[in-house]
């Protein structure tokens, strides 16, 4: 998947801060997400779905928060700076999927990816289904008008880019 890139401070202020949580509320987070237009981090989509076995079975709808805007509020980080949550890790590059130890919901995942220049950079993605609303109390944007794009994670086909329709084995 494409990596996060730098964001100008003026742009960051225009992009709303959202708060989200797992089903039982044990895990909570904040992040800035641009639902209005594709961002520098992900110029090809606003929302996406992946056909890899994890994303498919977990029913994930994915968004990319602005670089460095994701912040785990509860239960907090461990001493090594990683979420103080159990983590399911699989796949090439070992993408980490922290999940709530009480209700099992995964609010986000993280890992590293290679840029076109061969650099390894970190990324974080959010499960849009776990967003509770905007921190400023304003009405959350309607996401029903945004058509998701699709990744082919099932075959490790990241180099194929995103598609307008689900790849083989994916769902609308």
Structural commentary:
The chain is mainly beta and 172 residues long. The chain has a single domain, classed as Beta Complex (Metal Binding Protein, Guanine Nucleotide Exchange Factor, Chain A), CATH 2.170.150.70. 7% of the residues lie in helices and 28% in strands. The strands form 4 sheets. It has a 4-stranded antiparallel beta sheet, with no helix packed on it. Strands 4-9-8 form a 3-stranded antiparallel beta sheet, with no helix packed on it. A two-stranded parallel sheet has the order 3-11. A hairpin with a 5-residue loop joins strand 8 (108-114) and strand 9. The longest helix is centred in the N-terminal third of the chain and has 6 residues, at 9-14. It starts with 8 loop residues before the first helix and ends in a 21-residue tail after the last strand.
Summarize the structure.
With 172 residues, the chain is mainly β. It has helices at residues 9-14, 53-58; strands at residues 17-21, 28-32, 48-50, 62-63, 71-74, 87-90, 95-98, 108-114, 120-127, 131-134, 149-151. It has one domain (9-160): Metal Binding Protein, Guanine Nucleotide Exchange Factor, Chain A (Beta Complex).
Keywords, separated by commas or semicolons:
172 residues; mainly beta; Metal Binding Protein, Guanine Nucleotide Exchange Factor, Chain A; 4-stranded antiparallel β-sheet; 3-stranded antiparallel β-sheet; 2 helices; disordered N terminus; CENP-V/GFA
Describe the secondary structure blueprint for this structure.
Blueprint: H1 9-14, E1 17-21, E2 28-32, E3 48-50, H2 53-58, E4 62-63, E5 71-74, E6 87-90, E7 95-98, E8 108-114, E9 120-127, E10 131-134, E11 149-151
Parallel strand pairs: 3-11
Antiparallel strand pairs: 1-2, 1-10, 2-5, 4-9, 6-7, 8-9
């Amino acid at each position: 998947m494409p990596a996060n890139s730098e964001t100008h401070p003026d742009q960051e202020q225009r992009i709303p801060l959202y708060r989200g949580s797992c089903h039982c509320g044990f895990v909570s987070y904040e992040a800035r997400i641009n639902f209005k237009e594709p961002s520098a981090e992900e110029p090809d989509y606003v929302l996406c779905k992946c056909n890899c076995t994890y994303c498919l079975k977990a029913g994930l709808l994915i968004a990319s928060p602005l670089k460095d805007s994701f912040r785990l509020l509860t239960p907090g980080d461990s001493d090594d700076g990683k979420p103080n949550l159990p983590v399911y890790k699989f796949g090439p590059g070992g993408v980490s999927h922290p999940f709530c130890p009480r209700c099992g919901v995964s609010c986000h995942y993280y890992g590293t990816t290679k840029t076109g220049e061969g650099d390894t950079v970190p990324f974080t993605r959010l499960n849009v289904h776990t967003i509770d609303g905007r921190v400023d109390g304003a009405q959350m944007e309607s996401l029903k008008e945004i058509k998701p794009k699709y990744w082919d994670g099932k075959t490790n086909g990241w180099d194929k880019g995103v598609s307008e329709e689900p790849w083989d084995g994916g769902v609308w």
